[in-house]
Amino acid sequence: MTKLPTDADLWKAWLFLDPILLAPPRRAEGSDGDDEAFLPAIRRRIHLLLGGKDEELVAELSWRKPPRSAPPDLTDEERSVEQAKRAERKLRHYHSVSAAAAALRAPVQAKPTNQSTLTATLQRLNPQVGDPAPPPPAFLVAGGGDRPDHRTDAAVPTRSLPTARRPINPPPPDAIPTPIQFTTAQVLAKVRASNAAAAGGPTGHTYHTLRQLLDEDDVPTAHVVDVLNLIAAGKVPAPVAELLNAGRGVCVPKDDEGNVRPIVVGNVFLRLIGSLGLQLNRGACDDYFMGPSVRGKQYGVGTKDGCTLMAASIEAFMESNPGSIDIAGGTMNAFNKF
User: Fold this and answer.
1) Of 259, 263, 264, which is closest to residue 114 (Cα–Cα)?
2) Which helix (H) or strand (E) holds 248?
3) How far apart are CA 128 and CA 157, in angstroms?
4) Dihedral, CA atoms, 26, 78, 91, 316, nearest 10 degrees?
5) Which of 179, 184, 186, 323 is packed most tightly, with the most Cβ within 10 A?
C-alpha cells in the first residue's frame, strides 16, 4: 500500500482480511480453553483464502458466542460471584487487569436484551430518515428588565445564551504543518501498553489483533507503521477515508434492569493514531487548554488514565487537608443528551 497508496481495493482487502486471519481461535461452547492453537488457526485460514473459500473465511469473523444472561432471582452474593467469573475470564483470555476490573463493576443483567430493544434504543437517540427535525431550544437572556427579549413569565424557564463555539481557523494551504510521523518503536510501545480487551470497530481490528500484527520490530511491522503514517497524513483514497471514519454501534449494559447504553466504537487504527499523537504532543495540549504561562496541569487530553489520576490527586489532597471541601458537578443523563 505504500507503493500504491491510491488503490482503494488494496486498502479494503488489508483492512478486512487481517482481522479475519488474526482473530482468536474459536472455542467450544462451555469450554474455558482454546480448542485450536493460534498458529494452526492462521495457517488454516490462509489455506481457506488461497483456496477461494470466502464464505468460510468470513464466518471466522462473524461467529460470536450467544449472549449470556443470569436468572432474575440472583442474590447479591450470586451477582458478585458472576462478576468475579467474568473478571477471571477477561484476565485469563486478554491478560488485561483493566478489563478484569471493568468486569467486576459491570452490571449483571437479570434478563437478556432482545434485538428489538437494541434497535429502538439506537433509533430513539439517532434521527432517522423522514423524522421531523426537533425545534431548537428557546434560549432567553437572564436579568435586565430593559432587554427586549427579557420575559418575566414564571411559566417560561429562563436559560442563558449558549456559549458560542470557538471558531475553527485552519491554517492556509501554504502553511499546513508537516503531518505527524510515528516511529516503529513508538507504535510498538503504544500497542503493547494498550488494553487488549478493548472493543473493535467496523472492520474487526482490535488492539488484540494489533498485538499479533505488530509483534516485534521487523520488516512487516515497519510496513504497517508506514501505512499508519499514510493514514495520519490523510493520504488515503476517499472511499477508504469513509471506511476508516465509520463506527460500529454497540449497546452495552447500563444497569441491572436490562437497560442499555448505546456507544460507537471507532476504527482501531484511528484510535491508535489519535491516542499516540496526543501522547507525543501532550505539552502542546497543556499549552492549548491551560495557556503557556499557567502553572497547572489538565488531565482530560493527552494524559493516559487522566480521570483516574485526577480522582487519586483529589483524594490525596482531601486526606492531607481535612478541612477542605470537594465539590463535584454532574449532568443527569449527560451521555445520552450530548
Assistant:
1) 259
2) strand 247-253
3) 29
4) 150
5) 184
Distances (CA, A) of 229 to 5, 225, 232, 271, 274: 11, 6, 5, 13, 12
**Chain position carrying cell 503557556:** 292
Q: How many residues does the chain have?
A: 338
| CB-facing half-sphere around the CA of 230: CA atoms within 13 A | 20
Contact yes or no for 140/150 (Cβ under 8 A): yes
Phi, psi of 213 (to 5 degrees): -70, -40
For the stretch 243-276, pLDDT in tens is 888 888 887 777 666 677 778 889 999 999 999 9
* Best CA proximity match to 87, nearest among 96, 76, 75: 96
Side chain identity, residue 33: G
Query: Which grid cell is 316?
Result: 490525596
Residues 6+ away with beta carbon under 8 Å from 82: 70, 74, 108
Residues 102/66, Cβ–Cβ less than 8 Å = no
Residues whose CB falls within 8 Å of the CB of residue 81, separated by 6 or more in sequence, listed in order: none
List b or e across 196-229, with b for residues whose CB sees 16 or more CB atoms inside 10 angstroms.
bbbebbbbbbbbbbbbbbbeeeeeebeebbbbbb
pTM reported for the whole predicted model: 0.69
Phi, psi dihedral angles at 298 (to 5 degrees): -100, 140
- Which residue is associated with the grid cell 439517532? 126
Closest by Cα among 156, 163, 217 to 187: 217
Q: Cβ contacts of residue 217 below 8 Å, gap of 6+? A: 184, 185, 188
Alpha helices in 23-130 (DSSP H): 38-50, 54-62, 76-94, 97-105, 115-125
Grid cell, residue 307, equals 480521570
Taking the CB of residue 302, how many other CB atoms lie within 10 A of it? 20
Residue 53 DSSP one-character state: -
Place of cell 465539590: 327
